[in-house]
Amino acid sequence: MIEENIFFQKNYAVVGNPNSGKTTLFNALTGLRQKVGNYPGVTVEKKLGQFIGQHGEKIELLDLPGTYSLSAHAPDECVTRDVLLGLRSDTPRPDRILCVIDASHLERNLYFITQVLELGIPTIIALNMIDLAQAQGTTIDITKLSSELDVPVIACQANAKETLLPLKIALSRAEITRSSWSQQLPSPWARAIDGVAAIWTHDEEKISQRDPLVRMKSLLLLASPDTEIEGLAKEMNAGSLLGIALAQRSMLDRELPSWREVLVSARYERIMELCQAAQGRTSSTSETMTHHLDEFLTHPVWGWFGFFSVMGLMFISIFVVAAYPMSWIEGAFGCVGNLIREFMPQGDLRDLMCDGIIAGIGGVVTFLPQILILFFFIGLLEDTGYMARAAFLMDRVMSKVGLHGKSFIPLLSSYACAIPGIMATRTIENAKDRLVTILVAPLMSCSARLPVYALMIAALFPAGSVSLWMKGALMMGLYIFGTSAALGFAWLFKKTILRGETSIFLMELPPYRCPVLKHVFLQMMQRAGMFLKRAGTVILGISILLWFVASFPKSNLEKSNHDKSSQLEESYAGRFGHFIEPVIAPLGFDWKIGIGLVAAQAAREVFISTLAIIYHVENDDETPSSLSTTLMKETRPNGMLVYTPLTCLSILVFFVLSMQCISTLSVVRRETNSLLWPLFQFCYMTGAAYLASFLVYQGGKLLGFI
Amino acid sequence: MLRECVLPSMLKGVFMNSSTTFTPLSEAEAGPVLLVERLDGTEQVCRRLREVGFCEKAEVRLLSRGGQIICHVCGTRLALSRKLANKIWVKPFSQTHPLFSQNK
């Protein structure tokens, strides 16, 4: 029997506290053999990975969202609870569990782990970050811990591959016994659980009242808050459950008034006993290192100094360092374009290739280095533990607008892309705060705006006229403008349509760690892949479509004299541009920019590829030059320059504020589960963008700028 | 049900005698080990606090106090708002405890 079992595929669910290094361990075990999907109905990422066990069998790992307790609060914690209880129809209940514990925070981690042990599923504990615990002067008696909890406990370091072998061997074990750990509760509690558990045993005779799953379900149902008990009972789907549970609760109220406190404190009491037996402390060096760093980095004055240094460094690297690889990519696309121009016969197909596809895709892919650097910094900040400090500092600012520091992390991620940012709002427990954060997140300047900013700044300051630092400063100014707008609107929404109390601010400050570069790079590559995929699909499609509407119908004049300017004007795109020109003229935009703006409604970076296509179509392009120099030569019919500093500024302001991203709107629709909110978001942002651009352009004109 | 007793400051004296003094965590002394005595606030807030380690009789150390406070509970550094810290009533814990005695 056991012999056969060895070769069977084993399925583990990976669970643990947030910051326990769960995802790092998951990545280290499975490497790139991962599948990222979604749980239907909620947008919580479902990550599956696998590796080959000691007997050549497949071992599949399911990475569940981190949580502090099985009594769930936030939507992603509910997923963990529901999967472990077997309440999700899309994900089978795991047959084994891998619990990840942060060895340096044993007491806290054990709260959740002991709950998991009571589920009656065979479990292995990975005692992660054992090096960190040792550096802190904590020694853990692993044998003692293992025998007390009655499960295999294996020490490891997720960031050091050589320590993972014992864990892999343990995961390949044919048989793992169920832990006999159980939490003793005072007799009224035990009776209440018996009472609720009777429902299940009554329905199905096979299930015994001692069944650990049934007991845990009953316990969680009894302990859930008044507002959630009804929903949970429905989810557990057992006839008269709610009534029985409420009756048992009123019994508890009578016989054990402090029943809620007892539930948590009884568990902690046993954990404390366990820790005293299995854990010894000497001196702590790493703890004091974290303490000293925090004295500076969370200081009311010096903390901001550190914060702005980190942010400043990030934005300067995005602008200065990325300039080199960007020029290489630009050069490469130029070369390919020239080659095709040389070797293909003249005709529409050649034009489509050069002016449509190469120009469109090239214009966007050029910005890949900047996006990579941005994700590199965000990954680094998360991995070192500084992100939590940034959120801590920002709490002072955020609380002024009625949000708390936790909202800062989604907003900071939105600098990279609003989509992961909006998905990160799931950790915010208060529904109104979460909605406000979702509504303002797209105002944070995302990486798709970066190409537009870079191009407009290049057009604003011709090469050599100002230093790179100056351009960096203007770039940072745009980011600050977007951020202030986000905070301003958050304040407005909290005051008006989403009025409510500021929710509690409670956040873990993980100890500082040396970042795992492999992990950071893995994340960077995943994001770069997503960006390139978009460039290969959405942007490619729009590029071809745009080339078509900008080239057809063919102008009659074309045959006689190659007047490409009138060709564009008579094309579908040109006609449409002229049609909307009256609306955007007060902002200083001409009809060509209008075409770009309309195309950019799909995705902001399309603005660049559109301009590239428009001006390639228009100019007889025998000597390709970079887009920004083409822009600077562009004139209006009356001979004046189109891209004056004022127009560039007006475009910049418009792009900072406007909502031009179909993907974001669809994610907002999924996350808020309504059409109203994405629609509202689109209207308020576009309205604000129009108004602000109008003020900038008309105000600038009044002040005498051109 | 949970007692929702927010003590008016004038009543605080009732709980004060020579050996024990209850204070909200936000006003406690930074440094020494403190003992959580009672939690105020709604059921949900209390449950959250208990789960991250602020259960009754838990040991806490206050590390810093600014707009928000940072404290050490259950082996973890936690940041919380002043408003929340007001809901956690603590008293000094003079007795040396095996987990913290060597830690200073």
Task: Give a brief description.
Helix content of chain A is 61%, strand content 7%. About 1% of the residues of chain A have low confidence. In chain B, 38% of the residues are buried.
Could you explain the architecture of this structure?
The complex is a heterodimer of chains A (706) and B (104). Chain A has 706 residues and is an alpha/beta fold. Among the domains of chain A are: 2-171, Rossmann fold (3-Layer(aba) Sandwich); 187-255, no CATH class. In chain A, the strands form two sheets. A seven-stranded mixed sheet of chain A has the order 2-3-4-1-5-6-8, sandwiched between helices. In chain A, α27 runs antiparallel to α28 (606-618). Chain A starts with a helix and ends with a helix. By secondary structure, chain B is mainly β. Chain B has one domain: Roll (SH3 type barrels). Helix content of chain B is 12%, strand content 32%. The N and C termini of chain B lie far apart (39 Å). The model of chain B is unreliable at 1-19 and 96-104 (pLDDT under 50). The interface between A and B is large, with 52 and 37 residues. β10 (506-508) of chain A pairs antiparallel with β5 of chain B.
